[in-house]
Design brief:
Length: 309
């Protein structure tokens, strides 16, 4: 039976107790809910893979309470310090060289010489990490390939009975997974996953455009097929065909709407909630209205393209 924990002192204390004991707890972040386990325990991390049905070649993001903790896990250069100072806590994940003495188990990094790190901005999980004083491996709290969860109810819909607890922190404000950046030797960097922190913002901080990433999986969210609602998805739809649930945007209203006003930040926050609604409808297929590719729209389109693959 999965416990449902309130986001108060008692709920956080219980979550800390469970995590220290190697149990799985779904925790809120400003992006999506994460399925957390202590990153230094082989058994705890293996339980993430079992609960999600996740392929073991797909690395996990480790969540930290501070830049100091992050420095103990990875080699920080001047660029990493700049990015952390500007965007942490927040929706940016850095892929950096792993320190030999980091202490995280190989399953967290999928055996790679790098580690993906993020400091979440949600106050509940910040306090949880502060009390725990351990890095938490935490992919999205859903079955692998499925729609990411932005509420405790979304988590329960696929993981109830498979994990120890859900720490209910309300609806996620950003609603879209973090941007992932890999820093290369020299001044190069690669954008491994689009997200709330835009390419333009990163170029401004780093002073140069990204270089193309390699073909291997370096971070979460790079699989061609991901975020799947379990139904065929048609993009760039001006209207619904017969048997389609239409997710609208702006003037294209649809059965549900990402943003009536055409606001891309609101659309990002509502994306997975709309996909969950479409997946639960009796209609057999899903159509999605056109989304502009500018700014965070690029991240929304990235998720939709993988959902439709």
């Amino acid at each position: 039976m999965t416990e449902r924990l309130a986001n108060d002192g008692q709920g956080i204390a219980r979550a800390v107790e469970l995590l220290r004991a190697g149990q799985l707890v779904a925790v809120p972040t400003e992006t999506v809910y994460g399925l957390a386990a202590r990153a230094d325990s082989e058994d705890a991390v293996a339980a993430i893979y079992r609960a999600k049905g996740r392929p073991s070649f797909n690395p996990l993001i480790s969540h930290v309470s501070s830049v100091e903790m992050a420095r103990r896990l990875a080699q920080f250069d001047e660029r990493a310090e700049r990015l952390a100072a500007h965007f942490w806590p927040g929706p940016l994940t850095l892929v950096l060289p792993l320190r030999e003495e980091a202490g995280v188990v190989p399953a967290v990094t999928a055996g790679l010489p790098t580690i993906a790190l993020r400091m979440p901005a949600h106050p509940v999980t910040q306090e949880l990490l502060r009390q725990l004083d351990l890095p938490l491996a935490a992919p999205s709290a859903n079955r692998s390939m499925g729609i990411s969860p932005t509420s405790a109810d979304h988590v329960a819909s696929t993981l109830d009975g498979r994990i120890a607890a859900i720490l209910d922190g309300g609806t996620c404000l950003r609603g879209l997974e973090s941007t992932i950046v890999a820093l290369r030797e020299g001044n190069g960097w690669s954008l491994l996953r689009e997200g709330p922190v835009t390419r333009e913002e990163l170029e401004q901080i780093l002073g140069c455009p990204p270089v193309e990433a390699g073909k291997g999986i370096e971070a979460p969210g790079q699989l061609v097929r991901h975020y799947s609602p379990g139904k065929p998805v048609r993009l760039e739809a001006g209207e619904a065909a017969e048997g389609e649930f239409l997710i609208g945007f702006g003037e294209i209203r649809g059965h549900s709407n990402l943003s009536d006003s055409g606001d891309l930040a609101q659309a990002a926050a509502r994306l997975y909630a709309c996909l969950h609604e479409a997946a639960a409808s009796p209609l057999a297929r899903i159509a999605v209205a056109p989304i502009p590719q500018s700014g965070i729209g690029a991240a929304i389109c990235d998720r939709l393209t993988r959902a439709a693959a």
